[in-house]
Design brief:
With 147 residues, this protein is mainly β. 14% of the residues lie in helices and 46% in strands. The mean pLDDT is 93.
Length: 147
């Protein structure tokens, strides 16, 4: 199967590049490269339909996964099973570059939709939550830096 062209978007200061789109895997997965600035991270959330794997390429993350908190650096990976409440935050002075592997695929459309709509958090949260519902994503709490 031929690989489709890469999709590159920026949302809330985070750059997302879809390096293996769902269309190239018959829907089984997608791989997204993410480069996020220090102290960035999403609100606490749950992916109802996807397992999500983080592979850290550079920088460091603080992860909160169902009440457990841990740290990850280059060369480390963790898998968040679908239905698990989680969030993360880039720590240190450098951006974090990571691969997000989502299975099944399709979630890459959420980032593209948010970037196209220039949605902000928390200002546009109703619009973000509406789109999130279409991607089987549910927000459950504040970002890690707000705990």
């Amino acid at each position: 199967m031929t690989r489709k062209s890469q999709v590159d978007v920026e949302w809330l200061g985070v750059r997302y590049k879809t390096i293996l789109p769902t269309s190239s895997t018959n829907g089984s997965m997608c791989i997204i490269e993410s480069i996020a600035p220090p102290d960035s991270g999403p609100p606490r959330h749950v992916h109802e339909a996807e397992d999500e794997t983080f592979v850290i390429l550079s920088g460091e993350l603080e992860i909160w996964l169902e009440g457990r908190q841990f740290f990850m650096g280059p060369g480390e990976a963790t898998m968040v099973p679908r239905g698990a409440e989680h969030t993360f935050r880039v720590i240190g002075k450098n951006p974090c570059r990571k691969y997000l592997i989502l299975s099944p695929g399709g979630f890459e459309g959420f980032f593209a939709e948010m970037a196209a709509g220039k949605c902000r958090i928390p200002e546009d949260m109703a619009k973000v939550e509406d789109a999130a519902a279409r991607y089987n994503l549910r927000f459950t709490g504040p970002p890690l830096h707000a705990f």
